[in-house]
Amino acid sequence: MKYSLFLFLIPIAVGFSFAADSGRKANTIILDQTAVQNLRLELVATTEETFETTVFAIGRIEEISANRSALASRIPGRVIELNAHVGDEVEQGQVLAVIESRQPGDPPPSVELKALLGGLVVDTHARIGEPVEPDSDLLDISDRSSVWAVARIPEPEAANIVPGTKARIRIPALGETFIEATLDRYGVEANREAGTLEGIFVLDNSEGRLQPGMRVEFSIITRSRKNVMAVPHEAIQGDPTKRVVFVEDFELPNAFIRAPVVLGEENDRYVEIINGLFPGDEVVTRGSYALSFAGSGSGISLKEALDAAHGHEHAEDGSELTDEQRAAEQAENEGATESKELSPALKSGALIWAGVATLLCLILGQMLWSTKRKAESPAES
C-alpha cells in the first residue's frame, strides 16, 4: 500500500517541478563539438555601451571637380612624344608630351608640356604624330588623393543633420570596412523627383582604392544614448512577434539557451535589448540563424548533461530534485527491487495453487460420479 501511495505522488511532484522550470528543457540546444565547428559559431558578450541613432542613406563616390586638370598645347603642331597614358600616376611638373611646332626650322622647334597638377591620367585625346590645336586637350588628369562621398539625404531628415555631423560610411566594393567621416556641406540644389539633398563628405583616398561611381552606404549619427544594452543584428532570430537570441549556457559545454527578448531601437549595426538579457551574457552572432533550426546534436538529454556536470540526479526538465521527488524515486526503486525479489515466489505459489485446484476438481468429479452410480444401483436390481 505504501508503495502505491508513493507511486501515486510521483506524477504530482514531477508536475510541480516542471511548472517551476518548464522552459529550460524546451529551450536548450545541446550540440557536440562537430556540430559547433560545422555551424562556425561566434559569440559576443553583452555590455552596456553608447547607442547611436542613425539615418540611413545611399550615394556614390564622386571626383572633386577642383582636383581635375587638363594638359593642352599653347601652339599648333603635332605630337612627337607622349609619356603618359590612361591609368598612369603623374607628378606636378613632369613632362608628359612634346609638341613639334609648325614653324619652319631644321629641326622644327618643339615645346615640352608639363603637368600642372599631379594625379591619375583618366583620359587621353592624343596619339603620336597626331596634329594638335591650342583649343584641344591632350590628357585629363585627376588628383584623387581625396574624393567626395555624396549622400542622398531624405529631406525630412535634413533638419537633424548639419555640417559636422558624423557618419559611418560603408563601401560594398571594399567589403565590411567602415570609414568614419563628417558632413562637410550640402550640395547647391535638391533633387525634386527623389525628395533628397546631397550631403557631401570628404574622404581620404591616399591608397587609391576609392573610384568615382562606387556605391556608398551612409549611417548618419543624429543622437546617442549611454548605458544601453544592445546586440548585433545577426544575433536576433525568431518570429517578428517573438524575438529570441541564443545565449551560451553558463554551466554546460556546447549548450545554448533560446532566450526571448524585448527589442527597442535599432541602428545600422545593433539592436537595443530592453528586456531578456543581462550584462556579460555570451550571445551567438554568427551561426545564430542556423542554430535556430538545429536540434540536439550530442545525443544526450538535458537531464543527462546536468547529471554528468553535477554528479547527481536531476529531473527530466533539468531542475533540481526536491526532497519529495528523491523520496518518491527511492521508493519507486525499492518497490521495483522488491517486485523483482518476490516474483519467483509468486510464480511458485501460482503453480502450487493451480495444482491444488486441479486436484480438488478431480476429487469433486469422482465424488459426484460415485454418488450417481449408487443412486442408479437399486433400480437395476
Task: Explain briefly what this protein structure is.
With 381 residues, the chain is α+β, with helices and mostly antiparallel strands.
Could you explain the architecture of this structure?
This protein is α+β, with helices and mostly antiparallel strands and 381 residues long. The chain folds into 3 domains: 22-49 and 227-310, Beta Barrel (conserved putative lor/sdh protein from methanococcus maripaludis s2 fold), CATH 2.40.420.20; 55-63 and 146-224, Elongation Factor Tu (Ef-tu), domain 3 (Beta Barrel); 68-142, OB fold (Dihydrolipoamide Acetyltransferase, E2P) (Beta Barrel). The chain is built from 6 helices and 22 strands. A 6-stranded antiparallel β-barrel has the order 3-12-15-14-13-16. Strands 1-19-18-17 form a 4-stranded antiparallel beta sheet. A hairpin with a 3-residue loop joins β20 (262-266) and β21 (270-275). α1 (2-20) packs antiparallel against α6 (323-380). The radius of gyration is 44 Å and the shape is elongated. The two termini are 64 Å apart. Mean pLDDT is 83; it is low at 1-21.
